[in-house]
Description:
Helices cover 32% and strands 22% of the residues.
Amino acid sequence: MKDKDQRAYQMLKDNQLSVTDSRKNILGLFLHSEGALAHADIEKKTGEKFDRVTVYRTLQAFMEKGIIHTIPTADNSIRYALCKDDCTEGHHHDNHVHFICTVCNRTTCLASVTVPEVELPRGFKLTDRQMIVTGICIDCR
């Protein structure tokens, strides 16, 4: 078994998820990708192996277990990226900035750049904070 295939298998086991072909293949896409993936990217890369519902349910399970997180985009679509190791079921700790290239549309997690703290007015409750930065990536420059 390849190193990333073994890692996908172990991540599924560690998160008490059944090890299915769809889960292994989709998680493998994230492990092999340097950036975030859109639902359409995942469908395209898995070919006709898995239908749209299987991909959607797999992504939902991964988000619930803290394996992946969502990244909103300017066009109101969503991309998905691997979480850091300290994310757990129901507790995402991906408090980093996301960079979206305006040329190639690749989304990159900037793990070393954290989203600043936000002090809300009294009575407000923070449920999530995300920061998107756009520009031109190194490959498109």
